[in-house]
Known about the structure:
CATH superfamily: START domain
CATH class: Alpha Beta
Number of helices: 3
Strand content: 35-45%
Strand order of the largest sheet: 1-7-6-5-4-3-2
CATH topology: Alpha-D-Glucose-1,6-Bisphosphate, Chain A, domain 4
CATH architecture: 2-Layer Sandwich
Structural class: alpha+beta
Largest sheet: 7 strands, antiparallel
Radius of gyration: 15 Å
Amino acid sequence: MFxxxxxxxxxxxxxxxxxxxxxxxxxxxxxxxVKSAVMTGTHPVGAGTEFVTVYQGFGTMRIRLTxxxxxxxxxxxxxxxxxxxxxxxxxEPTATGTRxxxxxxxxxxxxxxLIQPILKWMFTREIAKRPAxxxxxxxxxxxxx
Length: 145
């Protein structure tokens, strides 16, 4: 198991950032490599909501929201053949928008356990790109005039 964390600031409200990130279906709009993201029920997004996603290189992953306190934080459990993850996203208002902190505990399965240092390096590199990708998603969902 390894942990990857990232903090970034965005010129958007906590509600906007939370809205983009907590509804996993939005990932297809902003995260490269997401082939699909479908919510499994018809109830509003909240604690207990589940999604089935397909990621390039990782295949099908199930995501279940385990904590949901809009617009302050949400947490989720991600389960799949290559790995499981426990993720937490926290949002704090700032004078110019919102500060987001993300924490991901990654639990590789099978042969991926043998290459954890390389996998951690790869995740850290990908997570460093996440703020720019999230900004693009915010621009799509909440265009500025």
